Every structure is written in C-alpha cells, then in structure tokens.
C-alpha cells in the first residue's frame, strides 16, 4: 500500500505541475499585456485550455509511474477525465470545459483504474487494445463519475470550514488560513478549487496566497541540495505539490514552511494584504499573488505598497524559511536535504 500510494502521489504531482505551469507562469503577465497586444489573447486561451487537460495528464503520469503499458496508461488518462468533472454538458447539448475539475476525485479515479487494470492483467490478450479503454471508462471511470458529487461536496465542506475562520479577527484569521492553505497545497486537494468554491477574497485570500508562497519558497530552499536548480525553482514557479509524496511520507518536512506561513498570514491581517478567489490558490506562480495585491491595495502602485509587496511576498518568505530550515536541520536534526529528493525527470 505504501508503494502504491507513493507512485499515485508522484504521478498526480507530475500531472498537476505539467498542466498548471504554463498558465501560472504566463497568465497574469499576459493579462497586463493583452490590452496593448490583443493577439496574445490566443496564447492565454491556450494555457487555460491546457489547464483543463489536467485530469488526462494526471492519469497518464500515474500510468507511467506504475510502469504500465501504453494502452493501460492511455486508459487511465481517459478514465481520470471521466471522473474529474472537468467537462460538463450544457443545456444546448454542447460539451464545455469546467476548469480543472475536482483534483482529489481525479486521483481516486486514477487509483481505481490502476487497481482494475492490475486485476485483469493480461486476460484480454489480443483484445486489450479494443476492450481495455472501454472497460476502463465503464467500470472505474463511471465509479469516479458517480462519486464525484459526494467528493465535491466534501471538498466544499472543507471550504466552508475555512470560510468560518474569517469570522475571527484579522491577525488570527490570517495566520490560520495561511497555515491551512500551506497544508492544502501539499495535498491532492486543489487550492484553486477550494478558494473558488467558497469565493475566498479580501484578507482571507491574501493570507491563503501567502501560505502557498511560504510552502513554495521554503521547499525550493530546502530541496535545492537534493535536486537540480530547475526542480527547486519549480516549487515556486510551478507548484509546491511536487513535494506531495514526500510530505505524506514525512509530514515533518513542512514544519519550517508552516511556521513561516503562520507569520506571513498574521502579517496579511495586520497590513491588509488582499486577493481574489483566483489569486488565493496560487503563490508566486506568474506573480499572481503580488500583482493582485497591488491591484487591490488602496493607492495602487505607490511607494509604500510596492515596499510592502516586496517585503511580504519576497524578502520575508526567504529570510524566515532560511532561518527555520537551519534550526530544524542543524539544531533540532528533524529534517535533512534528502527528505526533499524528487524521483522524476
């Protein structure tokens, strides 16, 4: 079971990063440029479309991590798409993309499909290419499709719990929400999905974003010695979710980031760091968090706001994580660089 869980999370992490990085890197920047260069709208649209391919990518990456055949891998991809909820039928009979779907249900469907394919093994023989994709849709795919409303509701309950935290005073609220989103970004649950479901905005959104900043920057610093520079930067420019497997195996590796998140979240409450339901789910990817703060801050691009943005989103996450990683690794001996090693190309 441990090996199965390990491979599943690795595949999910890969699929999430590959699908979300293009929009995360280009989305907010393109929105600033498009009014002056309208032709770039096509590029933005394409990155949004690629995000909706997330379920297929998760399924295929899971198949690859389990070292399955090409037909089996493709079957997991289409079954995961069926269970994801990323495509909906409109009243006009058309099929419309519905964001990235419910990521956790995509993972459940992919896991069920792997188990199903392992169960049937090579029993289909020469008919595998004909029957395997169809059976994967009809059995694990449809199971995922049927449980989708229940999983989506459960994810919504988590969002409601987070929303209730906003009734607290801003400093405590900011710290709690920041820590919660720091944890969510390291789980199969979509931070963008949770934030969108509960329409998290204002200080709650700003704090949530800073929790993800804390996770991304901290994991990039902690993992640098164990991975390549490009992989380390992927935690910040892409998503901290690439550490999902390591986090589930050794939760203590996130202690420095969680403390950093609490401090940054409290500062969000003190300094009125705000965001939108969309920006809440991202960290520094594509500068979504900083740019949305500047857009919503009173006075806009004035010197004081720029200073706050640089300190809160860039300087403090680096300084706090450096200090805390040093304490937890050198003084307490609770973590080491090898704990953050990623095993994919």
Characterise this structure.
With 345 residues, the protein is mainly α. The protein has two domains: 1-154, no CATH class; 166-345, no CATH class. 70% of the residues lie in helices and 2% in strands. The chain contains 14 helices and two strands, in the order ααααββαααααααααα. The protein has helices at 2-33, 41-51, 54-65, 70-84, 103-120, 128-165, 170-184, 191-197, 202-223, 229-237, 244-249, 255-271, 288-296, 303-331, and strands at 87-89, 95-97. The protein has a two-stranded antiparallel sheet with strand order 1-2. α3 packs across α5. The longest helix has 38 residues, at 128-165. The chain is globular, with a radius of gyration of 20 Å. The chain starts with a helix and ends in a 14-residue tail after the last helix. 50% of the residues are buried.
Summarize the structure.
With 345 residues, the chain is an all-alpha fold.
Query: How many DSSP helices?
Result: 14
Label the overall shape: globular
Helix content: 55-70%
Give the strand order of the largest sheet, numbering strands 1, 2, ... along the chain. Answer: 1-2
Query: In angstroms, what is the radius of gyration?
Result: 20 Å
| Class of secondary structure makeup | mainly alpha
What is the CA-CA span between the terminal residues?
A: 24 Å
Unreliable sequence segments: none
Number of strands: 2
N to C succession of SSEs: HHHHEEHHHHHHHHHH
What count of structural domains?
A: 2
* Mean pLDDT score: 88
Strand content: under 5%
User: What composes the largest sheet?
Assistant: 2 strands, antiparallel
């Amino acid at each position: 079971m441990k090996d199965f869980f390990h491979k599943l999370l690795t595949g999910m992490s890969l699929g999430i990063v590959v699908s979300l990085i293009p929009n995360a890197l280009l989305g907010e920047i393109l929105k600033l440029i498009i009014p002056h260069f309208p032709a770039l709208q096509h590029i933005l649209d394409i990155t949004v479309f690629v995000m909706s391919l997330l379920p297929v990518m998760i399924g295929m990456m899971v198949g690859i991590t389990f070292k399955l055949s090409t037909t089996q891998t493709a079957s997991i991809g289409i079954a995961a798409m069926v269970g994801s909820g990323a495509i909906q039928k409109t009243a006009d009979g058309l099929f419309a993309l519905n964001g990235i779907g419910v990521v956790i249900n995509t993972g459940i469907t992919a896991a069920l499909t792997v188990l199903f394919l392992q169960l049937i093994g090579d029993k289909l023989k020469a008919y595998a290419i004909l029957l395997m994709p169809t059976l994967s849709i009809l059995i694990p795919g449809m199971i995922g499709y049927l449980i989708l409303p229940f999983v989506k509701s459960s994810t919504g309950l988590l969002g409601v719990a987070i929303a209730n935290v906003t009734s607290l005073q801003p400093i405590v609220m900011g710290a709690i929400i920041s820590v919660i989103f720091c944890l969510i970004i390291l789980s199969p649950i979509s931070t963008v999905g949770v934030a969108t479901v509960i329409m998290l905005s204002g200080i709650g959104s700003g704090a949530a974003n800073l929790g993800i900043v804390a996770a991304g920057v901290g994991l990039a610093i902690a993992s640098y010695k164990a991975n390549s520079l490009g992989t380390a930067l992927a935690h910040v420019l892409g998503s901290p979710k690439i550490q999902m497997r390591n986090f589930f195996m050794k939760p203590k590796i996130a202690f420095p980031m969680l403390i950093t998140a609490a401090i940054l979240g409290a500062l969000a409450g003190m300094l009125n760091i705000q965001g939108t339901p969309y920006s809440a789910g991202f960290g520094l990817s594509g500068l979504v968090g900083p740019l949305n703060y500047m857009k919503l801050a009173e006075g806009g691009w004035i010197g004081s706001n720029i200073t706050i943005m640089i300190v809160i989103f860039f300087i403090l996450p680096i300084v706090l994580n450096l200090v805390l990683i040093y304490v937890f690794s050198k003084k307490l001996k609770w973590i080491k660089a090898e704990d953050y090693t990623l095993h994919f190309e």
